[in-house]
Amino acid sequence: xxxxxxxxxxxxxxxxxxKVTHFCTHCASLSNAPNGNAERPHRGRVCPDCALGVILSCxxxxxxxxxxxxxxxxxxxxxxAASESAERLFRVPDGLYGxxxxxxxTSPDGIxxxxxxxxxxxxxxxRPVTVEVDAAASRVPRGVTRARIGGCxxxxxxxxxxxxxxx
Length: 167
Known about the structure:
Helix content is 17%, strand content 28%.
């Protein structure tokens, strides 16, 4: 009787793989999974389109559009990568890499909720949530309205995909 309740692990993994998006952290192109093997597991991690970004993965519900504006953020709320679109949107002269997320983005619902959702995603939660956001700096045009936040990468990080009326 106990065998009736078992679910095939292979079926679950195949289903999860079909709902995964692979993307470049620089040009935001969507691609297939990197080709690696036992000897060289990270082969193919560099973007074949721009050769400047690393290929990461996330839930298709978090990112499904090429060229999207997004930030990759660690659990300590530091930006570790930004797509070209996000760099253009936020217009930070020295770039976004290494900056605290909350120096770039805020939320009308309070920064506590934004920070909590990013930490949750960076801790491995892949299911995305949508949060109302706005730019933190006055030099950034208003119009950033919301962001989808979900887990990505290996090691885990949060992917903050920005929907922008101004971008």
